[in-house]
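Ops channel
N.P.: pipeline sanity check, posting one input/output pair.
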């Protein structure tokens, strides 16, 4: 006798074509306000965990909005005492901020304001991370007015994150988004409320794996393999290996970002509509030398009708840096020690710059690392000739020959 494995469906969703859709029946007392009796909206995810969080958030939004609609319809004491001829103020149910009652804005309200004001131009992951973190709070503590969250709620949230097996850095990241959302909303709504998510202890080092630099012998081996295979995936590896760029920065480059015509060839890392930058310090010019120069030449020689340096990772509206990371790291693990990834090239570049005694502020400018100190924000930074001098020394010390 065959047994069927039953899985619990994600609430308020159904699956079509491998993707989750949110669905909710409109309450009978509000149906006259809708064109259809059921709300259906694609969630654009095939992950049940992601769909569950999104569905909970959307359901909470609808509950808050439907509450406002019912309040707008309810009888108000004293209406019969209003003098004839006076206009009765209409409740603006369509444009009001959801759930802005005497109790104040809820976490859903705060999230909406935060994303509306600070989400413009940010990567899709910015919105997803904020929604995910706030969704975790709502799942465990409910969608409450900001003033109603207690320290006990915060501790429940923390313990739930830890119980899920998240690393210390992941717990910190979730708390950071929740704190940022609430702090922004408290400022926007001018609320005199203390943020209870501030100052909560947890073990930040738990489960955190220290990123390892790639040993020089292995780095040279990888670079030799890149020259031998000579395709677009290996070009991106070679480019990162001798520039220290982040993988997402490299994957989102356009052909116009390269300049090989002058005395000093360089690549410009800048913000694009399809790929944002991590910080303001990430925008920079990096001189090209060694394998990075070879890769840049190959990219421009093989350029077709696409304007992207790596078309395979730029087929949509956003650079698919996660796809690049998965594919490249799968290949790379055959040539580097366990624990090393594409990001390890960035750690290696910092060590290589130290090895040639490159000054820290010059290394920061080459790698796009944020530099501390007010004075560092003045001026335009080091000229490209100075940067090339140190990049050249660094690459020459580990040249594959």
């Amino acid at each position: 006798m065959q047994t069927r494995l039953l899985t619990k469906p994600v609430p308020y969703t159904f699956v079509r074509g491998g993707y989750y859709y949110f669905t909710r029946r409109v309450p009978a007392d509000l149906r006259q306000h809708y064109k259809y009796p059921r709300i259906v909206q694609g969630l654009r995810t095939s992950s049940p965990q992601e769909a569950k969080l999104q569905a909970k958030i959307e359901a909470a939004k609808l509950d808050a909005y439907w509450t406002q609609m019912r309040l707008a319809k309810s009888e108000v004491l004293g209406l019969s005492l209003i003098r004839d001829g006076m206009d009765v103020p209409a409740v603006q149910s369509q444009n009001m901020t959801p759930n802005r009652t005497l109790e104040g804005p809820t976490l859903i309200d705060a999230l909406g304001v935060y994303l509306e004001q600070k989400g413009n131009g940010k990567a899709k992951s910015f919105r997803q991370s904020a929604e995910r973190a706030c969704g975790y709070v709502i799942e465990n503590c409910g969608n409450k007015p900001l003033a109603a969250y207690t320290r006990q709620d915060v501790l429940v949230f923390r313990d739930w994150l830890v119980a899920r097996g998240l690393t210390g850095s992941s717990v910190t990241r979730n708390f950071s988004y929740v704190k940022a959302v609430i702090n922004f909303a408290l400022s926007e709504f001018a609320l005199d409320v203390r943020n209870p998510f501030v100052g909560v202890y947890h073990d930040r080092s738990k489960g955190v794996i220290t990123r390892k630099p790639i040993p020089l012998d292995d780095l040279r081996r990888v670079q030799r393999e890149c020259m031998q295979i000579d395709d677009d995936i290996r070009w991106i590896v070679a480019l990162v290996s001798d520039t220290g760029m982040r993988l997402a920065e490299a994957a989102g480059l356009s052909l116009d970002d390269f300049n090989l015509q002058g005395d000093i060839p360089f690549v410009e890392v800048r913000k694009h509509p399809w790929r944002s930058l991590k910080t303001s310090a990430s925008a920079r010019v990096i001189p090209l030398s060694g394998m990075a120069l070879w890769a840049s030449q190959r990219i421009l020689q093989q350029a077709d009708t696409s304007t992207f340096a790596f078309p395979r990772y730029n087929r949509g509206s956003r650079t698919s840096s996660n796809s690049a990371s998965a594919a490249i790291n799968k290949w790379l693990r055959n040539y580097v020690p366990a624990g090393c990834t594409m990001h390890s090239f960035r750690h290696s570049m910092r060590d290589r710059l130290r090895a040639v005694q490159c000054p820290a502020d010059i290394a920061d400018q080459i790698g796009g690392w944020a530099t501390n100190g007010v004075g560092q924000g003045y001026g335009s930074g080091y000229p490209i000739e100075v940067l090339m001098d140190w990049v050249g020394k660094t690459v020459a010390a580990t040249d594959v020959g």
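N.P.: looks fine end to end. The mean pLDDT is 84.
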